[in-house]
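User: Last request for today: this protein with 2-acetamido-2-deoxy-beta-D-glucopyranose, please.
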Amino acid sequence: MKKMGNKVALLALVLVLCYGLAMAVSFVEDEDWRGESEGREDWRRERKGEVREDRRRERERKGREENRRREREGEGRKDWRREGEEEGEEDWRREREKREEWSTEARFLLKDSKRVVKTDAGEMEVVRSFVGKIVDRPLHIGFITMEPKTLFIPQYLDSSLVIFIRRGEAKIGLIYEDVLGERWLKTGDVYHIPAGSAFYLVNTAEGQKLHIICSIDPSEGLGVGTFQSFFIGGGTYPQSVLAGFEPETLSRAFNVSYAELRDLFRLKRGPIIYLNDSHSTSPWPKIMHMKEHARLQHLKKLMDSHEEPAQKEEQTWSWKKLLNSMLGMETETKKRDDRGTSDKGKGKTPDSYNLYDRHPDCSNDYGWSVALDKHDYSPLKHSGIGIYLVNLTAGAMMAPHVNPTATEYGIVLRGSGTIQIVFPNGTNAMSSEIAEGDVFFVPRYFPFCQIASRSGPLEFFGFTTSAHRNRPQFLAGSNSLIRAMMGPELAASFGITLERLQDIDKAQPFGVILPPDTKTKRREEPLPPDTKTKRREDEHAREPKVIKSFWE
Ligand SMILES: *[C@@H]1O[C@H](CO)[C@@H](O)[C@H](O)[C@H]1NC(C)=O
Ligand SMILES: *[C@@H]1O[C@H](CO)[C@@H](O)[C@H](O)[C@H]1NC(C)=O
Ligand SMILES: *[C@@H]1O[C@H](CO)[C@@H](O)[C@H](O)[C@H]1NC(C)=O
Ligand SMILES: *[C@@H]1O[C@H](CO)[C@@H](O)[C@H](O)[C@H]1NC(C)=O
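Assistant: Here's the final one, the structure of the complex with 2-acetamido-2-deoxy-beta-D-glucopyranose:
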């Protein structure tokens, strides 16, 4: 009789798994580019700067046309997270290099974005990195939005993440050295999630959305698509990796019946779910919402509805084991502080680091900047990634500079402005407007500068591909290499006298962050458009100044 019951349960499980597969496939097919651009709209709706809207729409429209064109060309890469299975990453790389290297005007703006998760509780969008010889290390940039009281279910990735809490509050649970550690994160916090480490994210705030920006480093990835999630929790959508085992194996591994297993894999609302969701058929939201000791109690209760009283004790144990193996939870040995906001004594999970609390590395009337490297925050050592944040007042300029050791990825957090990037041969590679939500990158060695628009401050944040102290070399301003190199050799190289060069050098008293342009009046006659770039470079050369690392 029992055997019969098991067979029925097995059949049910098989059906559930098949359904799951079907769901996974249809999920993928739903994600067309139109849907993706709507997501982009959503994300931007909260931003200011309507002036930029039209320009952006235009850009997106072009982007969409381009994508459609690509699709027509038969690439049909709808599921880009799995595309590697259909076409090798290498092929894709070559294709893309051919297509994109130097082929567009705004070539250093990243526009290949895709919504990879979308549920009623939140979404995740990924802006895919440029891949080509000029980028020493590709980094994708992820944007996660979660409604209040929601959970991004437990998973691990084939890529390491550095997350930045753009707005809101979060609780992150991370398995670190086999123990679950939970950390409460607030706006401005930075946190590193190593590849392969299981984690979950909870938006703990009552009435506030959570916005996270993260770098996704594919260097340890499987090379199949952008990145790969392995969901631990899950059900039919997303599918838990556990569901891939034979039911028999699972039943044995967890020492529970098929019926119990079936109860476990019931989530079908996507990777981001409401924790207040009473209609949910999955036990995960409720379980995750509880304090640790309560979780066990709850699981015990779950068991009661399925098991004979005599078996309770052992069953609790097997459930405990299950939880331990799924989430690495310490159950009895570590009792949590009941206020639920303290993260004392929970494993050796590293602490977060708050960018906004940090004293600026450089600050004057025209803005400030901070840079975070492994010396400030040791988890960055493992990620090999640095972080920076810059705030320029209206019209101010980050002096032309070069990153000699890293590629820089930037995300505009607020405001608008322009970014100029220069080719090694001294021609303008890009001179483009940037606005909130834009993602840009600057290859190592390439000189560049950012200028805030006159209408308001420009705040941007980003990642560099080195956790070592990044020593940007300034090409103009009071700490420029021009000033450091001042001498007859430099004067001769510009073809002017040393006195003349020194005069020019004196004109700029500021370094790193330069005041709004007051020199336009010096330009007596308007410049013809074609000489504009050239002339500007000449001006920079004639206004020498600079150097030393300002990050110190
Ligand atoms: C597995 O579960 C059964 C009850 O279903 C129990 O009798 C047995 O002791 C458990 N095995 C282990 C190793 O805990
Ligand atoms: C959960 O809470 C959110 C925000 O308070 C609400 O929008 C949503 O409808 C709730 N879900 C359920 C199932 O009650
Ligand atoms: C950036 O600077 C502006 C003023 O220029 C200020 O209003 C804003 O709060 C600053 N942003 C941060 C994150 O401090
Ligand atoms: C400068 O280099 C870029 C990129 O290699 C190239 O596209 C451009 O034509 C070059 N310009 C000149 C004037 O050599």
